[in-house]
Design brief:
Main location: membrane
Shape: flat
Helix content: 55-70%
GO biological process, one term: protein O-linked glycosylation
Number of domains: 1
Strand content: under 5%
Structural class: mainly alpha
Subcellular location: Endomembrane system
Number of strands: 0
InterPro entries: ArnT-like_N, PMT-like
Keywords: Glycosyltransferase, Membrane, Transferase, Transmembrane, Transmembrane helix
Length: 258
């Protein structure tokens, strides 16, 4: 059922048809982009589960069997992400390998990654954020180095990605937030660190973990509203002034008094 739901929304992006959904737009936008780049024309109706795709090119949006194409590819990335995270935390190769094998043979993870769903996209950003956070922590002995800035910034990018797919991404935001508070508290208690240097640490985290994710999250919505410029099933959720900007709407280009 979810595949018909999100696959249809991918088609809406390709056809630039406006719609409304409870989830943020990034996941559906990426599904539509994957379909567009792989030659899907957005004409499949996605009416009910089990409908045959026939001649429609759906391969880019949905990984079939072992084809790691977009959702399947992102799902397969969870294995190296988990491996690297556990290896960084435990410094134990057997523990990291065990973690990777557990995910490789996990039926639920394999199943979720086969279909046009938001879950593999969400899990990609969730685990990416955790891996980036752990890698950034490992660079604590060389703050403000290129690698430190890279992992800190990548953590912010992954936070924006997780929140941009589903609001349950808030949980990884809380995790990174608690880790950041712990780091800053530890730095504040370091008597060899000047207040100026502590201020630099604080501002770096504000920039990479608050400003950057918010900017990217806002940019996702800007792209969403720029692409979906044609009248569709989501018109009625918005004001008359907004509907007047949608091509094909009865109010298109009509002057709406404030």
């Amino acid at each position: 059922w979810d595949e018909t739901h999100f696959g249809k929304m991918g088609s809406y992006y390709i056809n630039r048809t406006f719609f409304f959904d409870v989830h943020p737009p990034l996941g559906k936008m990426l599904i539509g982009l994957a379909g567009y780049l792989s030659g899907y024309d957005g004409t499949f109706p996605f009416q009910k589960p089990g409908d045959r795709y026939e001649q429609h090119n759906y391969i880019g949006m949905r990984g079939v069997r072992l084809c790691r194409l977009f959702c399947a590819f992102l799902g397969s990335c969870l294995v190296p992400f988990a491996y690297l995270t556990v290896l960084e935390l435990s410094k134990s190769l057997p523990a990291a390998l065990l973690t990777a094998f557990i995910l490789i043979f996990d039926t639920g993870c394999i199943t979720l990654s086969q279909y046009i769903l938001l879950d593999p996209i969400l899990m990609f950003f969730l685990m990416g954020a955790v891996l980036s956070m752990v890698k950034c922590n490992s660079c604590a002995d060389r703050p403000f180095s290129a690698s430190w800035w890279f992992w800190l910034s990548l953590t912010g990018v992954n936070l924006a990605g997780a929140m941009g797919v589903k609001f349950v991404g808030l949980f990884v935001v809380l995790l990174v937030g608690l880790n950041t508070v712990y780091d800053l508290w530890d730095l504040l208690g370091n008597l060899s660190l000047s207040l100026v240097m502590f201020g630099k640490h604080f501002l770096a985290r504000v920039l990479c973990l608050i400003v950057l994710p918010l900017a990217l999250y806002t940019a996702v919505f800007a792209v969403h509203f720029a692409v979906l410029n044609r009248s569709g099933p989501g018109d009625g959720f918005f004001s008359s002034a907004f509907q007047s900007q949608l091509i094909g709407n009865n109010l298109h280009n009509v002057s709406i008094p404030e």
